[in-house]
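Morning, I've got a small favour to ask if you have a moment. I've dropped the whole record in just underneath, so have a look.
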Amino acid sequence: MPEGIGVSPGIAIGIAAIKNAPVQTESKVSVGEPEQELVRLESAIEKCRSNFLELNRNAKLTMGEEAAAVFDAHAMILKDPALIEGIKAEIMQGNSAEYAVKTVGEHFAQMFLQMDDEYFKERAEDVRDVISQLLGRLRGYDITENIAYESPTILVADELSPSEMARMDHESVVGIILERGGRTSHVAVMAKSMSIPVVVLEEACKMAEDGMTIAMNGEDGTVLFDPAAEPLETLRLGKERQERLRHAYQRMVGVGTSDRTGKHIRLLGNVGGLADVNEVLAQDGEGVGLFRTEFLYMNQDDLPGEEQQFAVYREVAQRMSGCPVIIRTFDIGGDKDASSLQLPKEDNPLLGYRGIRICLRQISLFKTQLRAILRAGAFGNIKLMFPMISCVEELEQALAILAEVKEELREEQEPFNEQMETGIMIEVPAAAVLSDHLASRVDFFSIGSNDLTQYVTAADRGNNRVENLYNPLNPAVLRLIQFTVESAHKAGIWVGVCGEIASSYKIMPLLLGMGVDELSVAAGTLLRTRYLISMLSHSELAETAQKALSLPSAATVEKLIEEAYGKDLKALI
């Protein structure tokens, strides 16, 4: 039974339709003068912009604001001076418009693919979709045809673009199997909004045949090609169960997040841009637990100014209507590059010049962002958070710069939030070990479990050769989290978790048992996480967490979890 990666939940049964990507080669030599090729390029860009506006309008009606915002982002890519000027430079060297678009576009896509962070790595699909649209216009193809079928269909393809998803008939396409893609891709986001299950399975196009019956589970990645009656019936029953669960999740809207004893847990959403705020609101999140600001700095030649940042931060604060919004100062470097910063190449960037380390060297850059955040705080409940703190000295220097910025704003009589809460990410093992000293200097901690796990286990989370070592259930990781929670509470401050483990049915209960006060999860998992929490009891979780901390390995912790509550919770998702 082939098993892939589930990226959009749900069970689907339908007839296979295989969509193969056309093989295209571009002539490098221009058939016309550079000036003629530039005219062709400008015409293609204008037609693409018009198409993206149309896709945006249609997506708002069929998929909602978040999915529609994809095409706003695509339109912005077409305005990216580095991309467009790069293409024009290739054309002026005598290359065809098609060759220039494909070459420069793929270079941009590779910039994102080389990043370790999945969120940014999968932004390469945005660039490739835009490039595909441009190439289609240059070749004279019809790229607006709808994707529809006569009977319930499972679409099997090497990959799909957001533009293709927007043209898809979600009545006839009941499931999608892709050879490439990920959980944070725009295709996954759009599929979820359309309630279409998606599984990523390598070489799926070779396994499937047009017209065969396929059954699939977008939750666990199971795919059955031409299944026998018994497993097919099992999936049918599973589909009915998931429908019941979907209705159960929706009933959690407006009820707050509490365990079955009535203990409240703050449940917020992670946001990587303004488009994600809509999903947090739609999923009834209690705020934004992590607002990533890197998108303002990446893929553009110029650094964002104070007013540009202020407008973005103010907008998210106002849209959240008084709910907390935790803005993390930029965490550029490591796996997230920004050409505008001209960062030096490093042998080991994840341990190098990144995050707060850049801020403390380039103080004017840091102050610009701090001014924008503080000013936006006058329009909503914004909290400020520093990433990658590894010692007390770094934190004290950051706080001193923050104090200077506040004094400058006072002298200018510029309104800002004088009482803005300030916290730090606990994602470096040194910060966790020193959390008892750091806690007295801030208002809150937010544990970044992805990086913390990576650094504690010395295992690159993007390297499949060591993925068996990258495990947040490793007792060393759990002990550091527990110590961080204890340090925070002794100092009278609260502590949250904003990594992937915050929504994991296996690990989230352990976090609550350790005393974590707040969880910030991917927006699409908010209601499911609330539903799981409502089934738990804090006193029982505390007992299980203490047992887990005494165990010697991730395997023994996982066994404990399964015996304590894992099987029951797994049945609820």
The chain has 23 helices and 15 strands. The CA atoms of residues 289 and 551 lie 31 Å apart.
